[in-house]
Structure prediction request, 661 residues.
Amino acid sequence: MIETASRIKQPEHPLDDLLRTDRIPHIWCPGCGIGTVFSSCLIAMKNSGLNLQKMAMVSGIGCSGRAAGYVAMDSFHTTHGRAIPFATGLKLGNPELNVVVFSGDGDLFAIGGNHFIHAARRNMDLTVICVNNLNYGMTGGQMAATTPHLAKTTTTPMGNPEAPFNLPLLAYAAGATYISRWTILHTRDLTRSIDTALKRKGFSFIEVLSPCPVNYGRRNKEKAFDSLKLYQDKGIIKNGANPSEIEMDFEKGITLGDFLDVDRPTCIEQYDKTCRLI
Amino acid sequence: MKQAVLTGEHFLTGDVACAEGALAAGCLFFGGYPITPATEIAERMSERLPEIGGTFIQMEDEIAAMASILGASWAGKKTMTATSGPGFSLMMENIGLGIVTETPCVVVNVQRAGPSTGLPTQGAQADMMQARWGSHGHYEIIALAPASPQEIFYQTIEAFNLSEKYRIPVLIMSDEIVGHMSERVSIPAEKDIVTVSRTAPKGRKDRFKPFQPGPNGVAPMPAAGQGYNVHITGLTHDEKGYPVMTVEAQEEMMARITGKIRRNLDDIIRTESYRLEDAEIAVISYGVSSRTSLAAVDEARNLGIKAGLLRLITVWPFPEEQIRQLARRVKKMITVEINLGQICLEVQRCAGGRIPVTLVGHAGGTIISPERVVAELKEAVSS
Prediction:
């Protein structure tokens, strides 16, 4: 069966020129939202008019971390949690590069949390896209720093006793200069936000809520379409919302939107101004 | 812009000489984190790099420092970080990433006594096995051991040259004593300093494979932004850099990353012989302990003991052949190092039971006195 399927000539996809097509099929499960976020990211990159040769993608470890392996540009699949410091070195080593960090919530906010807050504090010129699927998908669905209170995972079989991060608030407190949150149902808004982030200076953070039906959904009575329905029913677009008031609440509502877009000198600008006494 | 090479006569600590060696080698990026007794390297780099067009950044921890120098290396820069024991432990995972992604960079470990926080301001040579095997998995590594500020200046240049030539992180295993001692350091004219840079790729960009070895077993290396669209991963990968989860791919990759070092041992390994021609007892030492050993050999010679010294400049890959040959010529070997027996185990392995190999070691915190080595030499001739 598989052999037969592979002989069928697949039609060209409009994003083929940005993909390592020789690495497709990808590893993502049916119903997973990462591909949708990835697709939005590629569309934004393609339509941005920016020089793609000067663009690079850096990922950490996990399902979302595999994105770097599929994009046909300089791409780096690094160690768990360390995409941001690797990307920081890449950007400082060649400030002409437009560096995008594409990774998951476990990678960026548990093991990599320290690097996230410091890159935001420095206003390091990076676009950080976090696919938030509320758990560790790659390892089979364990509790993450974003898992809702009382949600079931393989390491919280009685329900999560802990509280999750409010990621936009964390980014805001740490000094990020662009912050937005979308779901995979809001691809147009998401693509526009990524486009904005790619073209602006400084540390940009975009959180994207994304279903993980295989590992998170099935333990929390949430099928892939249920997650999308939840995003539709509970998603409230409120641009400019106060990050301290947008804790994710799947009962009352999930606030989405562009929350912040401010100018602050970047890490490189400040370094040049302060340290290079030419 | 100021000069990268401070040609002239100086009075420098080992740490500062190390920083100057890096700049002379062409280092343009340093990602660091403060730690005694390596902090002075970061301090010097923070002052010097921006004035020569480079970049210094103090990262949030040693994990980030190590990750940042790998990233900057892929941006095309020569990069370095410096640390001591606790930071070296934190860097281990990303040193492994540097090995498997064949990323040139230099990591300096100004060793202090451990384990754990240990004696932060006092020297040791007890991270030698960690340098060899500290990151998980099987691999080859290059590690050098400097004995003076003058030597660390040259060794840092050599470390960059080896890392660029073989696309591998190179470790400089300094110690608190060398790092903090001040001595005369002569910095030659820029034209007299030999520097090596990674080989740039040639040919069609779309057919380029970032892990396809060249004639010396090492692949050319492009920088991000040059249009090669490289994919770099810590997963087991093929010559294209693509992940391949098979036993065959693992074997092929391992053969590549270990073979490029194993096949070039003659080019990589450096040792120095002192009064070994007619020696009956060989002292094997490295780094600051080799200075102790040198004084002890001279003293023993004055006492009529036929002693000599083999100083290991390259500690990893281990100079196996040199030790084997020496073991056929001398009657005994004494290893001198500030730990309780690390390199001594390697010397014993290479001596292969042919002759006795003993240790003059120390738990750490101070140098080994020449008197202790002389006592061991006396013991060796009397027994």
Notes: Chain B has two domains: 8-192, 272-382.
